[in-house]
Amino acid sequence: MPEQSNDYRVVVFGAGGVGKSSLVLRFVKGTFRESYIPTIEDTYRQVISCDKSICTLQITDTTGSHQFPAMQRLSISKGHAFILVYSITSRQSLEELKPIYEQICQIKGDVENIPIMLVGNKNDENQNREVDSSEGEAMAKKWKCAFMETSAKLNHNVKELFQELLNLEKRRTVSLQIDGKKSKQQKRKEKLKGKCVVM
Amino acid sequence: MKPLEKLLKKPGSHLPARPAAAPGPGQGSGPGPRRQSLSRSPASPEEPAGPAGPQPGSEGRWLELRPPEAPLRSPDEPSPGGDRDRELPSPEPPPAARCCCGCAPAAPAPPERLLAALLERLPAGGAHGRGCGAGRGPSLPWCILDGVTFVLAAGSPPPHWEEGAGLRRKHAVLAVLLHFLETYKGLLQEEESAGKVIKELYLLIMKDTSLYHDLEDEILKLHQLVETVELKVADETPPPNKQVKPLFRHFRRIDSCLQTRVAFRGSDEIFCRVYMPDHSYVTIRSRLSASVQDILASVTEKLQYSEEQSAREDALILVTMASSGEKAVLQPSEECVFTTLGINSHLFACTRDTFDSLVPLPEEIQVVPGDTEIHRAEPEEIANHLTAFHWELFRCIHELEFVDYVFHGERGRRETANLELLLQRCSEVQHWVGTELLLCESLGKRAHLLKKLIKIAAICKQNQDMLSFYAIVIGLNNAAISRLRLTWEKLPGKFKNLFRKFENLTDPCRNHKTYREVLAKMKPPLIPFVPLILKDLTFLHEGSKTLLDGLVNVEKLHCIAEKVRTIRKYRSRPLCLELEASPSQLQTKAYVRQLRVIDNQNLLFELSYKLEPGSQ
Ligand SMILES: Nc1nc2c(ncn2[C@@H]2O[C@H](COP(=O)(O)OP(=O)(O)O)[C@@H](O)[C@H]2O)c(=O)[nH]1
Ligand SMILES: [Mg+2]
Fold it and tell me: In a designed cystine with B182, which of B135, B212, B290, B442 is the match (CB 3.0 to 4.6 A)?
């Protein structure tokens, strides 16, 4: 029986079509597809290390629409960390994150201790960019969360996104590396490479 | 095996020779008995040894089907339709030729002659005009429903507009058609071929209207009916977009559970989780009637299996797994699987070589005893909400679902989703009773709850909700509950006696004589114990062939139709209970409508032994 309380739950939110599922599938399965299949709610499990022992990382990919508010509330209350995704090709998608962020604040209260990553996806589509990365950074600063730009398509910053998110967890040591022996140096190097800014 | 399941065993499964075990990997469930919506109790080897297991003496207690070879017209057999409609206008035929519906027995006949006879027997003129609108009026001869049953059973298309017929004949055909539409209603949306026949017929009739002014009334009615059925007759476009009423399996939703239930059709959508061996899951959105193949295609697409991968040996298979770990492979061609799953069963997609390593999801219910709503709410509130909900579920079942459930196999696969959901609920209530009791740690509290449950059963009975009543009594009779000697001893004598009476009422001896007598005295509206109706229908169906040498066994179809008519009678009046809409009432309502139960008999026994180790 998998120990429920031992699970580390990450929930991915964002408007429909910004690439939530693509990021998750790229991370979990290493695949990418061009076609768009709307998501209702999927959860993927992976073994990670947590406080020097093994635990399960649960990544919940959610629907972009607001069809199921009750489901959204439930995932927030059960989640330990959150990824808020917008597409750099759509300003609207960044706007749509606001109510979700507010709801997380409302349900979780003190969000400063909760790992949250704001993600601008599709940064391979620079020619269609509507949101400058500085705008994303500014928003993240306001929300007191971390920020990153990614491309699920080109597999850019995807693994880093998840690793950095786990690094933000201060209440326990969670890491994608099962042996948990990743050196500090290595991490820093990744951070630089990934242009990750932790606010 | 639990009593209810025995009661409900599908055609053929009462033959002792049939292996009862679920099919193993690779074998699939094939054309054999359909999976029950009821969760299964574990196979005997997994049952705890000792006195706690179901007593062998009670084996077969519920299974008193007459032997299948017993002829239907055997006069000395008690009529299975003991609760039949006593108000039937037809005179009682001589006992030797008695059919359970009380109609004059009809000789077997070939389908065409039968149809002609049916049309012959219809009254001329507009006598049926009013009857059709209501559909239940006595002006329509009883044989029409039989005719529909016959059409169903024989699998032939509905009656055709015949050449050379006079006005009377056309009246008759219209009457049949109207009645057919009235009976089928929304179901026709799901049936392309039937819809086509009706469409053809309708167009033919419309062409003739100018010739027969006398038929105006009927034609107008036909027009309306065809419209309500949403058969797009004028053009070839498919029916307009239906309102989506997704069924959330394993999603507990306060908002949707408080709404009045409406009937589900095969084209409705369902959201359902499909799990992977590591308990990852994807939620798929599919038609309720989707085939296993369709479901697997959605999962494969979601998980981005490459085509080459799925074409190879390690293509995905779909498996159902109960909370006890019992699992079965579903065949790719199987349809409408969602409503046949057990209460806490889940769908798994895996490759053949991972089948053996599949483990059930962790038990959803916290075994930590916490006070649930049942301890707070008044027994009347809970009973009334049970009745109200079960009435909704009962009302959602189309009459033909009962027929299709038993005739399954003889006709093509039809949707019986609403009936299956009710059966699922029935089993849920049984397990709920046990779960709630076994989550009470203190003896005093347990005895108090036992008393409350008996009270709830009593009020359900008063409400004429025999479904909830039966389910609670069966639930209290579960071996994991009945072995709690200390708890039962603490029950006041008055309640002990009351429960003894209830056991007596649900005693299946002499073909459920006591229950049938009580039911016969009740006036509609009432909720019958539906599994027993299915047992009767199964008996009727298995007792004789539908077609013999090309002749239709009319008597059999009469009997089936009569049984279905009793259901119509039960629902002929609305059931209204006075339920407040106060916040606490809404809380009770939500609780009653989404019970959390343990359906794993092993776990129930485990809890039972922990509470009273030395009992019995
Ligand atoms: N160019 C580009 N397209 C992407 C990227 N990520 C996703 N997409 C495309 O965007 C569409 C929506 O992706 P999806 O992951 O289903 O979005 P979701 O609704 O947020 O889950 C799909 O057609 C993807 O192929 C990316 O990083 N770059
Ligand atoms: Mg998605």
Answer: B135
CA-nearest of B345, B335, B343 to B408 is: B335
Q: How many domains does chain B have?
A: 3
Does residue B269 share a domain with residue B143?
A: no
pLDDT of residue B369: 53
Ligand 1 atom with the smallest distance to the CA of A150 is: 27
Q: How many domains does chain A have?
A: 1
Whether B365 maps to a domain, the answer reads: no
Write out the H or E segment, with its range, that includes residue B274. Answer: strand B269-275
Residue where the block lists tokens 């309708």: B202
Three-state DSSP class for B70?
coil
Could you tell me the end-to-end alpha-carbon distance of chain B, in angstroms, rounded to an integer?
A: 21
DSSP structure string for B420-439: HHHHHHHHHHHHHHHHHHHT
Question: Given a cut of 90, is residue A103 above it in pLDDT?
Answer: yes
Given a cut of 80, is residue B249 above it in pLDDT? no
B258 shares its domain with B295: yes
**CA dist., res. A198 & res. A192, Å (int):** 11
Integer angstrom CA distances of residue B142 from A163, B139, B562: 72, 9, 9
| Interchain proximity A37–B301, CB inside 8 Å | yes
Q: What's the pTM value of the predicted model, to 2 decimals?
A: 0.74
* Cα(B10)–Cα(B7) distance, integer angstroms: 9
Determine how β-strand B547-548 pairs with β-strand B551-552. Answer: antiparallel
Q: Which residue's C-alpha comes closest to atom 14 of ligand 1?
A: A19
Residue B550: inside a domain: no
Task: Answer for the pair B291, B333: CB distance below 8 angstroms, yes or no.
Answer: yes
Q: How many CB pairs under 8 A join A and B?
A: 37
ipTM of the assembly? Answer: 0.84
Contact assessment for residue A146 and residue A168, using Cβ atoms and an 8 Å cutoff? yes
| Residues within 5 Å of ion ligand 2, judged at the Cβ atom | A 20-21, 39
Rounded to whole angstroms, the Cα distance separating B166 from B76 reads: 45
Which residues on neighbouring strands pair with residue A45, listed in sequence order? A58
- Compute the distance between CA of residue B46 and CA of residue B23 in angstroms, rounded to an integer: 17
B335-360 core/surface letters (b: 16 or more CB in 10 A; e: else): bbbbbbbbbbbbbbbbeeebbeebeb
Pocket test for ligand 1, best of A31, A36, A39, A121 (most atoms within 8 A of CB): A36
Question: Looking at the partner chain, which of B253, B280, B283 has a beta carbon nearest the beta carbon of A40?
Answer: B283
